[in-house]
Amino acid sequence: MIVDAHQHVWDLARADYPWLGPGMGELHRTVAFEELAPTLGRLGIEGTVLVQAADNAEDTELMLEVAARHPEVVGVVAWAPLDRPDDLPEHLASLRRSPLVVGVRVLIHEREGGWLAQPHVDRGLAELVRADLGFDFVTSGPAALAELPGIEARHPDLRIVIDHLGKPPIGQGSAERAAWRSLLAEAAANPRTCAKLSGLYSSVGDLGDWTVDGVRPFVEDALELFGPDRLLYGGDWPISVLAGGYERTWATVTEIVSTLSADERAAVLGGTAESFYRFPVRRAA
Hints:
Blueprint (H helix, E strand, L loop, with lengths): L2 E5 L29 H7 L3 E5 L5 H13 L3 E6 L9 H8 L5 E5 L13 H13 L2 E4 L10 H7 L5 E3 L11 H15 L4 E5 L14 H15 L4 E3 L12 H11 L5 H16 L8
Parallel strand pairs: 1-2, 2-3, 3-4, 4-5, 5-6, 6-7, 7-8
Helix pairs in contact: 3-4, 6-7, 7-8
């Protein structure tokens, strides 16, 4: 099954999205799954994972309601209060009542540096292991990847997936690429850590100012460091709309991985998502 492992929905009337303002242009509005569903069907993408867009329970409730209406949604990465470890077991138990909740994400890039290393937050990561939930690691830039080896050492059984390859310096120079690659390599040394081929846009200027050949070296680095069985395709819709559109994102990733074997392509385009998130497969009607 082909799976998009990173997609969002949001509803301005249902949840608070502090980062979502007029600066987001055409995306400063409610965004519904129905807008993307026809494109997924046309491209043969059978499943998608909804990923949280706000640090609140209302956003999670919205995603679960969308999933209930759309069998294409095979998993939900929910928000959980990692900084409230005493409340977290009950919260995670509540989330786990839905088999579609397959992971947790917090907008850590909106918080102060080192937030995850604070003792009470670190206790929260330990609760994710007990609940057998994966952790999506999101960052606004490569520097935050330096936190991962410490997290991996403290929680060797925690399944981690790095969103958007840790925001590689696409459009910058060789020195920036080397620094990003070094940090990613340290994180990739942990066999439980995976990464998403998602959100691969220009890191300078306009988001859409990138080319296939500009993205290719970063994907090749990731393939070398992780291997196909630890990489997941993600369309990052609707953010990808600001970077040239969903179909451009899909075409770029599929072109770059076209040189892989059939089994390796199948892993990147769905198999790794299934093994990492362990979601109950729901085929579209």
